[in-house]
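Exercise: predict the fold of this chain.
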Amino acid sequence: MKKILWMMALMLCIGASAQEVNGISLRIKSRPMVVYLNDEPISDLTFSCFISGSWGTYRIRVDIPADNGRGSRMVTIFRDFTHYSGSGILVLDMEKELPGHYRGRGYDYDDYWDSYDNSWGMDGRKIYNSLNDLLYPISPHTYAEMVDELRHCSFESDYKRAFQLLSRNAGITAEQFKNLCKMPSFDSCKKIIALRLAPHVLDIENCANIRDVFSFLSTRDEVTEKLRSEQEARYEKSGRRY
């Protein structure tokens, strides 16, 4: 009897220990990767990497060898701020970040990232929003996840949950902003998206045609005023004239 109780206690301890494993797991199948955390390498070439951590936002970058590893050149396939809830294991499948599974097409994810001249402004400016957050372009993968989440939203609480995908530093283009605002059928839901995401628009000066998205004049005016005040705050911070 004592032996049985001892075995049960041991199994409970093992189960409890297993539940304490928390962090972010990165996996890939086609070719090895190097994982960076806050721009510091934390792995050699590997097919899996685990980042042990607590609740927070992590800046993660993943590079793979170009040309099937025949040379020393590396290309970046993933670079984003990833939010982790602090519970369980968040799995990031890097295979999904390989365009066409990287079939020798020479695609370089840096072509997307460097379109912002490495300083996130089309004219060379660093873009700080009204909350004083430095904005970085989100990856196509993160944007696709946001679209999928918003597609299933019906109530304000649903939208708040969907917005948790975005870090404080996540930046979207004016075109992405407009497309997200157009997703719901009702102005009340469109307004929730617009007011929440306005501080995340990188090229906010290109939002002039956002009024076309809304049906009611009151909603148009409220969103336009939010964008105007956001743009004005950025200009004041940078010393530029509005």
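Check your answer against the key: The chain has seven helices and nine strands.
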